[in-house]
Amino acid sequence: MKKSVFLGALTVASLTAGIAAAGTLDDVKARGKLNCGVSTGLVGFASPDANGKWEGYDVAICRAVAAAVLGDNTAVEFVPLSSKTRFTALASGEVDMLARNTTWTFSRDVDLKLDFVGVNYYDGQGFMVPKALGVTSAKDLDGATVCIQTGTTTELNLADFFRVNGISYEPVPVENNAEAQQQYLSGACDTLTTDASALAATRAAFENPGDHILLPEIVSKEPLGPLVRHGDNQWGDTVRWTLNALISAEELGITSANIEELSKGTNNPEINRILGTEGNLGEMLGLDADWAKRAISSEGNFGEIFEANIGEKTPIGLARGLNAQWTEGGLIYSPPFR
Amino acid sequence: MSLMTTLTDPPKESFRLSMLLYDTRYRSTTIQVVALLGFMLGAAWLINNVIVNLAVAGKTFDYGFLKEASGYDINQKLIAYNSQSSHMRAAVVGLMNTLLVAVMGCIAATILGVIIGVLRLSKNWIISRLAAVYVETLRNVPVLLWIVLIMAATSHQLPAPKDFRGDEPAATMKIFDSVAITNRGVYIPEPLFSKGLGDLPVFPDKESKACQAFYNPDGTPATAKLAKFCGTFQISIDLMAILAVLFAGLIVSKLIKVRADQIQKDTGVRPVTWFWRLGVVVLPTVAVLYILGFYLGYPELKGFNFRGGIHMRSSLLALWVALSLYTAAFIAEIVRAGIMAISKGQSEAAAALGLRQNRIMSLIVLPQALRVIVPPLISQYLNLTKNSSLAIAVGYMDITGTLGGITLNQTGRELETVLLLMLVYLVISLTVSSVMNYYNERTKLKER
């Protein structure tokens, strides 16, 4: 009898713990800090600079969310996660959100109980080879040794690509990008494969980036985006609409330079709704009216973040391509703020 | 009479609840029952916690994913496997890789450990000091660092396959052009048979009539459970034939020894039998190899890599060498302790009988020392096997890498895979220790 009462009490305790964990927005506010899972170090996307300050394309998303929710874009605890540990860390509540070059797939969304809130980079898997190898197409890679980060979708795409083309390869599994880079540069593998953006970022960090080329084949669709735990819709909405605010800001011409002026009120009602001078969108999210203004002022709008971290003027040198606004022929498109 | 009995019988004490605590007859049982209850409560709390949290996360506990196609490739596979095979098969491939490195490691560590242990007792100052330095450096640095160090050394210092190319290659193959040492591993010649007997399918082939019987005319499996096994397991007849002949040779050799022992016992003269004993093992084996058309397949540089030959990947080499060197340091200490436990009188008595130093060691000291050595040796074997799970540091696809790494990651079934993984290691460890315990029973001092 006593035992069952004791167990019952425990069940209630753990249930309430589960419910409390579901209110991520309140948790983050109470903690005063956002725990954001990022890559263990991929220049341009997420890496600490010489002073240990995290910067990059994915990092900017974390900072924007922190600015929107907490009003301080430095109130972020960056948690570097390997591709193997990232989902466990998110599911267990160790991090509030992931912004870590993570591909949106059916099984991750449905089976792993995660919620992708959008796409911040449309990517595809590519191959990098040393120029000296004389290979011009991924289909010439029969019998090659391929370095691949284990626990990623690229691992599965790789198997499919070689199987479909009827050619063989020898996979060399590596834990993280740094190790992949070492193995590739020492010649322990002929080619390195991962998302094309990450390849470009990796190559930018090489001593002689010109000695390496990316093969033209893009063998998969890799929509990368931030994600949160399944089941906490309020928190999911917060992250989703923070990302959308950055995208809409670019589309509507709100930049970090003119945001102060625009927030005094404009004759474009959508800009006014985003910046909180009209309507009560912030209140609906459980935030204040200035949430989106703070998010955009954090590191600029979507385009500014892209150009500052991975754009053509940076060593990584990625063109907008698919990641241009829909008005410019790309796929980046935010639902309306209404 | 009845009055007498009532008087002589001790007064019957009625049982009171307080006796559970104050009566020494019951107290220890009470404490044990309470401790057991506490333990069960703790376990129940943990299990309940898992169930509740799984329910909150909306996850179910089920092993169905093991039957699904894995979708990933594995470089080192001892059984047939491709990305369309099931997660279960990927786990088995990983298990074989774990066992391979564990067995290779245990053998190498034992040989090296015994040598170093004996050398440490050498009267030669330099040799014994060198052995001591070996033991102290190896065992006092974490094995993970040794693994990573050896891997880094192989991948950065050894030549890449492309260095073997051209008229003036930067690197050449060793030992009559039969062995290629590259930064991707070592390629050695492989045994091949020109007149091989093929494979014996344990389950019928996919195309065979026996297997077609499991399918409906439209190609859907009629007997799903049986159809799955088609062509999944084949045994090389060549290998079986060679092993059978070798085994038979060893038995005959043993019989010759028994006969020689008997003759020595009866007449006091031991017949010279070594060439017989060697002959019955070697000659039939060589004959079988000749019949099967045995030849060596040499590795050749084709395309990006060497093809042919046995490819010992640098990940396997790094793991094997590091685990062996590391565990050998512990085994050396165990061997040294075992030898020192044998009283000096034993070797002095043997010396007085005129035995040479190496005979004293092999006939008198080591057999007795084994009794002291074997029990701690078991735990070193277990340690080596468990340490092999560090394989992931160098990308060696052991069971932690396949089941506990890629499968876990691709399916998101942490709890299921980790529990299965723990079970696998438990079974391996218990098997090793029961085999070694059996050996220990056999060799220990029979006291009568």
Topology:
The complex is a heterodimer of chains A (about 350) and B (about 450).
Chain A: H1 2-22, H2 24-31, E1 34-39, E2 47-48, E3 54-55, H3 57-70, E4 76-81, H4 86-91, E5 97-98, H5 106-110, E6 114-116, E7 121-123, E8 125-130, E9 144-149, H6 153-164, E10 169-174, H7 177-185, E11 191-195, H8 196-204, E12 212-214, E13 222-224, E14 227-229, H9 233-252, H10 259-262, H11 269-275, H12 281-285, H13 291-299, H14 302-309
Parallel strand pairs in A: 1-4, 1-5, 9-10, 9-11
Antiparallel strand pairs in A: 2-3, 6-14, 7-13, 8-11, 8-12
Helix pairs in contact in A: 3-9, 3-13, 9-13
Chain B: H1 2-8, H2 19-22, H3 24-57, H4 87-120, H5 125-139, H6 143-157, E1 180-182, E2 185-188, E3 190-193, E4 199-201, H7 209-212, H8 224-227, E5 234-236, H9 237-267, H10 274-291, E6 294-297, E7 300-302, E8 305-307, E9 310-313, H11 314-340, H12 344-352, H13 357-387, H14 399-411, H15 414-443
Antiparallel strand pairs in B: 1-2, 2-9, 3-6, 4-5, 7-8
Helix pairs in contact in B: 4-5, 4-11, 4-14, 5-11, 6-11, 9-10, 11-13, 12-13, 13-15, 14-15
Characterization of the model:
The complex is a heterodimer of chains A (338) and B (448). Chain A has 338 residues and is of the alpha/beta class. Chain A folds into two domains: 2-122 and 225-328, 3-Layer(aba) Sandwich (D-Maltodextrin-Binding Protein, domain 2), CATH 3.40.190.10; 125-220, 3-Layer(aba) Sandwich (D-Maltodextrin-Binding Protein, domain 2), CATH 3.40.190. Helix content of chain A is 41%, strand content 17%. Chain A is globular and about 60 Å long. The longest helix of chain A has 21 residues, at 2-22. Chain A is built from 14 helices and 14 strands. In chain A, helix 6 links the parallel strand 9 (144-149) and strand 10 (169-174). In chain A, helix 3 crosses helix 9, helix 3 (57-70) packs antiparallel against helix 13 (291-299) and helix 9 crosses helix 13 (291-299). Chain B has helices spanning 2-8, 19-22, 24-57, 87-120, 125-139, 143-157, 209-212, 224-227, 237-267, 274-291, 314-340, 344-352, 357-387, 399-411, 414-443, and strands spanning 180-182, 185-188, 190-193, 199-201, 234-236, 294-297, 300-302, 305-307, 310-313. Chain B is globular, with a radius of gyration of 30 Å. In chain B, the strands form four sheets. Chain B has a three-stranded antiparallel beta sheet with strand order 1-2-9. Chain B has a two-stranded antiparallel sheet with strand order 3-6. In chain B, helix 4 (87-120) packs antiparallel against helix 5 and helix 11 (314-340) crosses helix 13 (357-387). The longest helix of chain B is centred in the N-terminal third of the chain and has 34 residues, at 24-57. In chain B, 62% of the residues lie in helices and 7% in strands. Chain B is mainly alpha-helical and 448 residues long. At the A-B interface, helix 1, helix 4, helix 6 and strand 10 of A face helix 3, helix 6 and helix 14 of B.
